[in-house]
Amino acid sequence: MLRGVENHSLPRAAAFFDLDKTVIAKSSTLTFSKSFYQGGLINRRAALRTAYAQFVFLAGGLDHDQMERMREYLSALCRGWNVQQVREIVAETLHDLIDPIIYDEAASLIEEHHAAGRDVVIVSTSGAEVVEP
């Protein structure tokens, strides 16, 4: 095989991980609610509501319909936000908020898949501005 030319005869393998409660111990979007409040993106009431939602999310007490309502609420909450401001808030607080809640087992599995040459795909219902970093 020539250098730099992909071998399309070999199938590519990938490992898929759900970000929330699989890679990290909380909801990625809800984890940033305090930072979004401090950045002026949400008001105090919304910050308290998201804190309660995080508690319920962690307790595992949400059924499908409740999860859908929370997703709809969060979608409406962030509608109209300045994307660059969200990216800046996430960049400034990412390591302080997310690093401590990454499951060790998930990090190890991701490293193993990378070492084996497999793609790793992280999926989430959270926005790309929160998930990609």
List the helices and strands and how they pair.
Layout: E1 14-18, H1 28-31, H2 33-38, H3 44-59, H4 64-78, H5 83-97, H6 104-115, E2 119-123, H7 128-131
Parallel strand pairs: 1-2
Distance between the termini: 34 Å
Number of strands: 2
Order of helices and strands: EHHHHHHEH
As a whole number of angstroms, the C-alpha radius of gyration is 18 Å
Strand order of the largest sheet: 1-2
Q: Report the sheet-strand fraction.
A: 5-15%
Question: Can you walk through the features of this model?
Answer:
The protein is mainly α and about 130 residues long. The chain has one domain. Helices cover about 55% and strands about 10% of the residues. It has a two-stranded parallel ribbon with strand order 1-2. The longest helix is centred in the middle third of the chain and has 16 residues. It is globular.
Structure characteristics:
two-stranded parallel sheet; 133 residues; mainly alpha; 7 helices
Concise structural overview:
By secondary structure, the protein is mostly helical.
